[in-house]
Amino acid sequence: MSRIRHAAAALLLAAPLALGAQLALTPAEQKIRETIDRSRDDQIRYLERVVNIPSSTLNLAGVRKVGAAFRASFDSLGFETKWVMLPEATQRAGHLVAEHKGKPGAVRILMIGHVDTVVEPDGPNWARTDSMAKGVGSNDMKGGDVIILYALKALQAAGTLKDMNITIVFTGDEEHPGDPLSVTRKDLIDAAKRNDIALAYEGGNRFDATTARRGASSWRVTATGRQAHSAGVFCGAGYGAIYELARIVNEFRVQLVGEQYLTFNAATIVGGTDVEYDTIGIKGSTASKLNIIPKSAIAHGDLRFISEEQKERTRAKMREIVAKHLPGTDAKITFLDEYPAMSPTAGNARILAAYDTASQALGYGPVRALDPGSRGAGDISFVAPLIDGIDGLGALGTGAHAPEERVNLNSLQMQTERTAMLLERLAHQTSASFTRKPASE
């Protein structure tokens, strides 16, 4: 078992039991459950309505239309809402932010969703067959957004929402974040600074929730060589750019492969005498003759990691590999930060323990921590360096990011009940009790 796996296991074992002690529903919680059950058909109709609004990331009007639907719903629950417009240069629609101020000193909860999709259907695309429905965004993640809304509706009906401190951020560009991230994720990060814990609603699972997600960044290697007649390759003319780039990429594989949670994919390579490469569109072209030693080669890929320490240590090794040039060549590597890592913490495990207990009290069975290696980066990653949280609380389904995306409609009630019970139980905790302690403690 690796050092990282040992650490994650220790965190789970160390999770405080105070939040996980209540294994039965109180009368008030039973009423909340009954409200969610009565709202089942209405919840499905709401999901159908927002799924039938095309809202791929670059469909700015569509994203704002979905955001407006949720904004009106949160307004009706007593939230103060706003649509945050992003600078025109980002070419993104903006974000919905909704805040509910409850009891002073009580835990402050940030709930994260998004209203954009990857695929853009031509129009209404909802189609239901028994307990399954097909529709772009039905589980990723309009289903998750609707789970948040109907959990809050049930809490309002029970009279307990009034005491809760909740901030909701639905981003409009999760599937294709605008640039720079310092601008397009500023409102999400600022919200984290005003809250104590985060709950995120990417696609869920009956038996797992996410307490750690790998971060993501990109790397690009540019190699150069001396252009000359191929008869001189390996001799006076040197090895050329392509051999230098091949050496580097292969050494990445040889020296770095195998560390838990670390991956480094070489996605594209172009090389030759005349090379053009678009770093935004991730596409390029090359031209040469077979008897010419190439003068330019470029490799572009991603790097995924479980902690900042793992990321920086890997980058240092990659720089070291790049610096050992073949004769007659040169090379440079650049990195671009994208998503930070959501590293496993004792606080994340504590929140999972509360979610697990709520699930068991509802009769849905235990919930364990999902293997971080099976999940990519998400919006919760941007707040993870600031506050503890869990993800994967959304709808169950299949085919995300594709026209055949489906959502399990029966799962909506289960996930909504789990969220409502978690919020009901967290609401009795103090804000101070969730203050993140330094890693050294």
Count of helical stretches: 12
CATH class of the largest domain: Alpha Beta
Q: What is the number of E strands? A: 20
**What would CATH call the homologous superfamily of the largest domain?**
Zn peptidases
**Major sheet size, sense and barrel closure:** 6 strands, mixed
Relative helix content: 25-40%
**How large is the radius of gyration?**
25 Å
Q: Label the overall shape.
A: elongated
pLDDT averaged over residues: 93
CATH fold-level name of the largest domain:
Aminopeptidase
Description:
The chain is α+β, with helices and mostly antiparallel strands and 441 residues long. The protein folds into two domains: 3-213 and 342-434, Aminopeptidase, CATH 3.40.630; 215-339, Alpha-Beta Plaits. The protein contains twelve helices and 20 strands. The strands form six sheets. It has a six-stranded mixed β-sheet with strand order 1-2-6-3-7-18, sandwiched between helices. α1 (3-14) crosses α10 (346-361), α2 (27-38) crosses α5 (142-158) and α10 (346-361) packs across α12 (409-426). The longest helix is centred in the last third of the chain and has 18 residues, at 409-426. The two termini are 24 Å apart. The model is unreliable at 1-18 (pLDDT under 50).
